[in-house]
Write a structure and sequence with these properties.
Mean pLDDT: 80
Low-confidence stretches: 1-19
Helix content: over 70%
Order of helices and strands: HHHHHHHEEHHHHHHHH
Length: about 425
Amino acid sequence: MKKFLIILFLLFSFCFSISHAEEINLNAVINQRAKLEEELKGLEGQIEAYRATIQDKQRESTTLERDIAIFDAQIGKAKLEIKARNIRIFELTGDINKKSETIESLIEKAKKEKASLAAMIRKAYELDSTSLVELMLEYKKLSDFFIDLDSFESIYKSINDSFYEIREIKNVTEKEKGELEDKKTEEEQLKLIQEIEKKRIEEAEAEKKKILKLTKGEEKKYQEILSARQKDAAKIRSALFMLQGSTAIPFEKAIEYANLAWKATGVRPAFLLGVIAEESNLGQNVGKGNWITDLAHSKCAKQRTAFIQITGELGLDPNQMPVSKKAWYGYCGGAMGPAQFMPTTWLLYKNRISNITGNNPPNPWNPKDAFVASALLLKDNGAINGNYVTERKAALKYLAGSNWSKPAYAFYGDDVMELAAKYQSQMDILLVSSQ
């Protein structure tokens, strides 16, 4: 029995020991993370510098040099943001792998504890099945019997406590691993969106290079081209404001809806157009799905119910109405129309939308209703005074809710504000031409 207790004690001690090699490996991981965090901090500083350059240049008079500088800064910023996101994804992947190894180690440790515990139970059964006289006869001294019995009970309790602790740590670790995987898919989603954004900026840069070729770098010729374009207000009027999941509308009609929303909510029209354009043009999956497939997951049950209610009230065939596709990184698609509201969110706003547009019930695929819905949400997010900072913050909340301040989402706010500046200049041209 003494040998049995000694073996158990050694096993118990071994299970909770940490090797020197493991300590060295942990230090290496900590050092690597510190280096990555330092690199990330440097990248974020450079990104902020690019952002400041863009804002400063946009306040200058339009010149060839100024516009080229803006596009160079936009491209540089986009590349750095993608690089920074790659670092975040790498860090998260390492964390997930580390958590996985911890879980495997805990499972193995639990197996050993189970084996020890089973042996202890068998021995306890043997003790219960043996008379006290027989047990005492195994010992030369009565005191040895009681010492071993106390040790047995102490180790039995320790292994029980250890097994409980392992189970709790395993549950916590699995939860943390799930959270890390969610963060990783979130980062990969944003990386995908940013790649789309980078492509869009590169296309715009190609247009600038085309102008440079036409002007041969001469400021006078560039100003002549700009002047000719600015005077041609008819082109702006006829240009279509592209909407995903709805019929595209003339730019002037988009301004009409944006002005309606502005009078009711105080949200600046050009800013609203920037948000609608960003929502419609960024996601390649927007408006190309259907509710049967893209709201099929059990976690989308509330969205399915709301979607059926919305289409039922409108007398629409739910099978024919476009929604955003379920992305590879998530459970639910189902965002509707130009404003990209999820069904449950639309129901929260529908009465307020109706009070402004007069459409009862409102239709998320109707541009007029969608513009008002977007403006109401932006108003609730604080975008009612036309201030750059508050508008950008409202746009970020539109995308990310309470996570709006995360650096990974910064590009969205920048995009919206750049689009808002573009639409403001076009609206100014139309205003001048109408006078």
